[in-house]
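**User:**
My hope is that you can spare some time for a protein that puzzles me. This is the protein in question:
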Amino acid sequence: MTDVSPQPERGSTPPRDDDGRVDVTAAVRAFSRLEQSNTAVIKLVAAQLGLGVTDIRALVFLASTDEVTPKMVTEYVDLSTGATTSLIDRLDTGGYVRRVAHPTDRRSTVLELAPRGEKAIADVAQVYRLAFREAIDPHFLEFYATVTNALADSLRNRASTGLDELH
């Protein structure tokens, strides 16, 4: 039986930067390429669906988060309240989302994916599934998910401190 542990074999000794720390330049560049490729996919899918990039971002957020309120969408897509209302109205009219009564707050509504929104998200997810299957050895998927989640947590922590704690 072969080893199917999620962690790849150790590489050579990592390069060091001028300060003696591990040089992460190649990883940062790869991350930048990933972001650019992700943006290209989102733009293409949005255009094919007749939606905007922000529309797709909102749909992805709705698909991955429970009990989403309009305020949560505003914060996530970083739009004004008025622009978010227009976004939600457009997605609602287009059959991508629906507004339902909030389960515990009768003053609020919750947004849900409508069937057309579920189909759009399924199509977007399929693009990513295909890319992951093409690019990553299945034995490393768990490792990739672990590393990506750790990086996401670290970036979220960095976002809370900004430039104040760079060193």
Notes: The first strand starts at residue 97 and ends at 101. The longest helix spans residues 25-49. Residues 1-5 have pLDDT under 50 and may be disordered.
